[in-house]
Amino acid sequence: MMSKNIVILAEKPSQAEAYAKSFEKNKRENGYYQVSGKGFDNTIITYGFGHLVELYDPEDYNNDWKNWQLDSLPIIPTNYQFKVSSDKQKQYKIVKSKLDKADEIVIATDSDREGEAIARLIIRLSGNDHKPQKRLWINSLEESEIQKGFQNLKDGQAFYSSFVEAESRQIADWLVGINLTRLYSIYMQNAGMQGVFSIGRVQTPTLYMIYQRNQEIEQFVKKPFYELIANFEHENGQYQGKYKKRFDSLEEIEAFQTANQLSQGMVGTIKDVNKEQKNTYAPKLFSLSDLQSEANRKFNMGANDTLKIVQSLYEKKYTSYPRSDSNYIGTPEFEYLVANLDNYLTLAGKTIQDPNTTAQKRYVDSSKVQEHYAIIPTKTIPNLDNLNEKEKNIYMLVLLRTLAIFEQPYQYEETTIITEAQTTEFKTTGKIEIEKGWKQIYKDDEDKNNTSEDTLPNVSANDMVIVRFENKKGETKPPKYYTEGTLLTAMKNAGNKLDKENKEILKESEGIGTEATRASIIENLKHKQYISNKGKNIIVTEKGNALCEIIGNDPIANAEMTAQWEKYLKKIQENTGTQDKFLTSIQKFIKYTIENIPKSFENNQKIEEHIHNLEADNLLGTCPKCGGNVTDKGKFYGCSNYKTKDCKFSLPKTWSKKKLPKTALKDLLTKGETAEIKGFVSKNGNKFNAKLRLENGQLKFKFA
Question: Global pTM?
Answer without folding.
Answer: 0.83
